[in-house]
């Protein structure tokens, strides 16, 4: 089978015949229809990730077929027994084990879940990592229930869009921020109540006036704008943090945190139980992942370039086979 | 009845006959045996608190008797229906309503709870505000269960000492920080596993080497040392924050928060249900509050001075009547 192999951080992925051994006697081979990109893949190609090894087939998201059934792959490997946190053996599919940018993958059958029937193969590949991350941070960590007022920052990213879709599906009032007015319009067309451009000075005060504040805020930027999110919390609010693209958080006011009984929950990935619950939610509400663009496996480096440019809205998908 | 009245922030409390009207038809008069000080009282005398009015009898902690029964007073007034957070009518006893630095107090009978029988009147007055705050942040917010490794910073303060006692009572391994080696020794004598002096450079690394990190951290300092607490978190840890004496928090690393699934919970005061549960815990484990010093009601300004000096270990109590 062919796979898109990263051989060093100095060169693009190379699509070639890969003869990696089946490293575990319990693993099965899954023929892949499709895969999808995550920022993780991009960071690994640039050497900005812990534990990089070569050669490695990247890719955490995949949809394929096994024993006559269409399946999606849970990218959380070896979570361990504690629902609260992944254990020391935890891995994300696609490093250190080989991932989904390939014609097939060897994987433990416990990672395979039936594809939600309403999704095509490209949509299904868009779902796993981002959908799982959004599910855990929204529901397990921040305790989202219907009727809440929700803010999702950085609308356009894969996790952010699933968070928006999931929150809308169960009946939340969803607001967003983005650095692009075009993306704000797209999210409003999906059903969001509104949004503001974080490049405008006073965006947080604008949101506060428009909404009165939020019960749940989902963020992956952190950085200096995080303090503004605390100011946008209603009493009893929860902030879910699943990334840190803007770096360290500063100038957080403790009195606001404790007087308003605010919680900040770091969150990443999720358990197999959460993966199954996420698929169930997607099927129940007939949610279709937002796809930004589709590339062939041969075009994987163009797909990575698309992600690097940062203008995508939704998931960047690789079509591998029909 | 006599009360210690604050008439302005320019002068000490004045003990004199107070003829305040019973402002609510449901209120009852409780004769007070004893009261206790909190930092809140000190900050009000200095004008460093929101909504100060004059004249006002300060004091949130009280023990007295009503209809032949010894009672302690729940200082949380009008919490409201939401367990997660106090509502807009919420008040702490002792501003804007008159407090416990007086021979008696008019208060709603729902605020009265039977005094734990094993406590004397001075110990009972030491319990309410600090015990309630410690209970909520430890149990309701951080989910403490037996067998956890707990760090309490700033050992010596009222809430910190109750947090230490409560966590020890249910079988936690408790570590502390303090700026005083003498206080560290006192806490070890109470059963803490150990502690470090935060005035020593590298105190956090020292703690990490000694303990491997913590499941629950209880802090009221915030400020620049808060980032070190995040570094002391075990995977899945919770930090409970109930104060902010060192001001804003800076340099928090988002990647540590989300990869370790850490939660930060702001917390203040507590509900009537939590107050009752706290009294039950104190009775069940026969916990005796740590008393730093006892003053008469006439000596209330000396008691406030003792608090201002900051060297107390445990609660500063006012003895009002036998």
What is this structure's SSE topology?
Two copies of one chain form a homodimer.
Chain A: E1 2-6, E2 14-17, E3 28-36, H1 39-45, E4 56-57, E5 61-66, E6 69-73, E7 76-77, E8 91-92, E9 104-107, E10 112-114, H2 121-126, H3 128-141, E11 149-152, H4 158-169, E12 173-178, H5 181-189, E13 194-197, H6 203-211, E14 214-219, H7 226-231, E15 233-241, H8 254-259, E16 263-266, H9 272-284, E17 291-296, H10 300-309, E18 315-319
Describe the model.
- The structure is a homodimer of 322-residue chains.
- The first copy, chain A, has 322 residues and is an alpha/beta fold.
- Chain A has two domains: 156 residues, Quinone Oxidoreductase, Chain A, domain 1 (Alpha-Beta Complex), CATH 3.90.180; 135 residues, Rossmann fold.
- The first copy, chain A, contains ten helices and 18 strands.
- In chain A, strands 3, 5, 6, 9, 10, 17 and 18 form a seven-stranded mixed sheet that branches.
- In chain A, helix 3 crosses helix 4.
- Chains A and B meet through strand 15, helix 8 and strand 16 of A and strand 15, helix 8 and strand 16 of B.
- Strand 16 of chain A pairs antiparallel with strand 16 of chain B, so a sheet runs across the interface.
């Amino acid at each position: 089978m062919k796979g898109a192999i990263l051989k060093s951080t100095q060169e693009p992925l190379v699509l070639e015949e890969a003869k990696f051994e089946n490293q575990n006697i319990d693993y099965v081979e899954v023929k892949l229809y499709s895969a999808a990109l995550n920022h993780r893949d991009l960071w690994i190609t640039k050497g900005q990730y812990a534990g990089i090894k070569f050669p490695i087939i990247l890719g955490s998201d995949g949809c394929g077929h096994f024993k006559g059934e269409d399946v999606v792959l849970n990218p959380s490997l070896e979570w361990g027994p504690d629902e609260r946190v992944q254990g020391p053996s935890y891995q994300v599919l696609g490093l250190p084990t080989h991932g989904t940018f390939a014609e097939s993958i060897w994987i433990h059958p416990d990672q395979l879940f039936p594809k939600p029937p309403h999704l095509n193969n490209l949509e299904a590949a868009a779902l796993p990592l981002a959908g799982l991350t959004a599910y855990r941070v929204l529901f397990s960590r921040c305790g989202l229930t219907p009727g809440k007022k929700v803010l999702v920052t950085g609308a356009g990213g894969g996790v952010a869009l699933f968070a928006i879709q999931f929150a809308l599906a169960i009946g939340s009032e969803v607001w967003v921020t983005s650095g692009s007015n075009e993306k704000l319009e797209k999210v409003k067309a999906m059903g969001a109540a509104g949004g503001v451009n974080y490049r405008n000075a006073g965006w947080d005060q604008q949101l506060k006036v428009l909404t009165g504040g939020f019960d749940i805020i989902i963020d992956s930027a952190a950085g200096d704008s995080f303090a503004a999110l605390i100011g946008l919390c209603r009493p009893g609010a929860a902030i879910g943090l699943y990334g840190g693209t803007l770096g360290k958080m500063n100038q957080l006011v403790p009195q606001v945190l404790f007087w308003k009984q605010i919680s900040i929950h770091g969150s990443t990935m999720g358990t197999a139980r959460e993966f199954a619950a996420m698929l169930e939610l997607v099927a129940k509400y007939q949610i279709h992942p937002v796809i930004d663009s589709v590339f062939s496996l041969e075009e994987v480096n163009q797909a990575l370039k698309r992600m690097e440019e940062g203008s995508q809205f939704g998931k960047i998908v690789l079509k591998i086979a029909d």
